[in-house]
């Protein structure tokens, strides 16, 4: 009598519960919501799942996710291929692209150095970054990892690694977020904002 | 340059965003999480979606969701088929089954009367409930709709409708939730708890 549920519904809820941040209760709610949707809707969802997994691979150049041979940024000849922005994950590329201001290309590390989690430099796409710098055509590498311990450590590690290659290495500016307030800024951010003050 | 994303990933995120309570940001996070999972995992997810939609239908007797001809409760001869518990949705059946104490059968209305949302009695599975009562073998109908305006209205409507059938109609008890505290109970709950006090 225990655990009364239609079996396919239970299996679907289990699948939803495997997603990050979805608990068992939410998973059941999501599973029920599927039942009440038209069949072609559910088919579209199932196909989107399979297509995302099967058709997406890493861009051989920048390591970002793409369904094409080369990702749309790397394939774009209008962009400045001598400027590489190094980011942790594909989501960061999306965030930077939203600014609409960056005209260079990217390199996605797929992680940050974090020995405590067992993520050593050889687990990141660093070899691929070095390979892109061999022909000497790149003039600047921007470290756009997050301003966290891991992000800073990774940026520092890469900066040292790139030193012999004589390429300019820069880091994103830290300071007050636009729309933020001095009152609520933490000490480190405020210190960085003071340190990096610019002429008006 | 705007909206840079691999297309299949974008389509998958759109599908996730159609689920109840999942915003665009979460949907993107979920879509990314799919990419990093093994292909057989994603196939199992896609199949679970399709199977839940295709194989599940309403039990012809109690209207609960099932993948079998008759749901497991209605098909169980050990259960008391003369006792019907009327609930709003299949989730309520699961909740009641978890108690492990109820030995009767169910009837799922698939909604509550709510004229403001356009849900009139003819949109609920009331005809099916009346049909189950025709042979006079049912001795009691328990109204187990939620203690809300709509739940109470639906229970009241059904009680009136069943009156000529001379079947005993009862309602779930209202009172303090077990583990709750007087201090935080709302006035109506406390009033109901007082009103329905039992001898010790």
TrEMBL record, chains A, B:
Transmembrane segments: none
Keywords associated with the record: DNA damage, DNA recombination, DNA repair, Metal-binding, Zinc, Zinc-finger
Zinc finger (C4-type): 59-74
Residue span, Toprim domain: 82-177
GO biological process: DNA recombination; DNA repair
GO molecular function: DNA binding; zinc ion binding
Pfam family, one: Toprim_4
PANTHER family from the UniProt entry: RECOMBINATION PROTEIN RECR (PTHR30446)
Functional description taken from the UniProt entry: May play a role in DNA repair. It seems to be involved in an RecBC-independent recombinational process of DNA repair. It may act with RecF and RecO.
Family: Belongs to the RecR family.
Entry-linked NCBIfam families: recR
Protein name: Recombination protein RecR
Record organism: Ruminococcus callidus ATCC 27760
